[in-house]
Amino acid sequence: MKEEWFPLVNEEGQTIGKATRRECHNGCKWLHPVVHLHIFNKAGDLYLQKRSMTKDIQPGKWDTAVGGHVDYGETIEEALRREVREELGITDFNPVFLMRYVFESKVEKELVNTYRTIYEGPFSLDPEEIEEGRFWSAEEIKAHLGKGVFTPNFESEYEKLGKQNLQME
Fold first, then answer.
1. Which Pfam families match (predicted)?
2. How much is the average pLDDT of 11-33?
């Protein structure tokens, strides 16, 4: 299997080095960039993916529609479009930038670049990445927060942005 290389960045997103996926996920807390895309339908429901049980971090948990690492030498927008195509089979969407922030867990430290879009489907899920996916209402999400259903990263981001700020205007 090909070794994945990620850029190491400062908090402004400037590349200062590179490291392998394994190095970035071994608890050393090297800051590396990722992309997230929140997908809403026209009714305002939020599409979430259930992570595959084979994932090395948070397997089987519900998470942001698309989340993935930026490869070394790739721009944030290139990574976003690649991840959306790979995970959900979507090639035509209009991303709107929401925010950038640092997320830290026990095993890694990420510079998260968060976007939103409106998309109704169809979706073509990558079974290696995603077990299932569906739209959730705000009430449904709120009822499951803090109960181990979602990834800590999703819960943190959802609360940080608030549903009102995530929705398209």
1. NUDIX
2. 93
Backbone angles phi, psi at 165, to 5 degrees: -75, -25
Phi first, then psi: give them for residue 33, nearest 5 degrees: -85, 145
Q: What is the pLDDT of residue 56?
A: 79
Go through the domains of the chain in sequence order and give each one's CATH number.
5-166 (3.90.79.10)
Nearest to 98 by CA among 43, 39, 42, 45: 39
